[in-house]
Amino acid sequence: MRLDFKILWFEDQFRELASQLEEIKDHVSEAGFQPDIVQQLDGAKIDDLVQQQQLYHEFELVVVDLNLAGEWLGDEVAARIRSGFSFTDVLFYSGDGEAKLRRLIGDKGVDGVYCCDRNDIVSRVIERVDFVCGSLDRLESMRGLAASVVGQCDRLLIECIAAHEGNGKAPDELAVLLDRLVSASRDYAKKRYDSCVDVPTRLESRSVTSHVLWQAIREIVPKDGPFAAERSTLGSYDDQVLKKRNTLSHAVEEPGPDGWEISDAKGGTFTRDDYPSFRRDLSAHLANFRALHNRIKTNVVDE
Prior knowledge:
Mean pLDDT: 88
Structural class: alpha/beta
């Protein structure tokens, strides 16, 4: 999930749509996204755009006018986009009315293209924008977005602070500043933790990190006995989940020749091809924790 909301728009008279485009941008901004409408006068770059979408999945919505400049007609563009853009919404419009558009698309044997009259273009685009945004309004998506944005902000702040080393701030001064702030943060965290009066408040403390929880359960659950299988899987949780989570939180995403590449501060890179194995690890460890949770709760009740 990204903050930018990109719309690919095929139209050869964008000046006539200036006010409508601004209204759509305002609506996207109101939804909390950064609007980016990529304008195309014709279908000359259609194959490059299809490849770009397949590699980077940049566009959330495609809008196509029937009458375009150049050799391509809108129904040809819509059909090519539908076949190349997988499940991305496609909105096909014209001043000639919906019936003609549906007939043209139907004659090409294309499904999954929304059609509308030119006069309704703003309301129909906003309708599709709201649908896409609604599908993203889930806790998991927002949590991922927050982690992504904070990671980007952290990287920018690191570079800003590092730049001052050669711009008026001596290395020793920066080191002293960072040491003081880290020490103050550590003292504050310890003070907050020391105020915890029982186990429940300790467990909810920010000082008890994901890594601390993992270490704690490994010490609590014996290697042998009824939880041996789950305890064995726990051993790889740090490497397969926590460390990767931390890397992703502070990584930077850049377009590469084969799709998005993610680089971390240590220079390591991985691509979306690595995501399936990471998702499998996430699923496996979540299932293991659920199994461990159920067995421990059942065991406690039985006792």
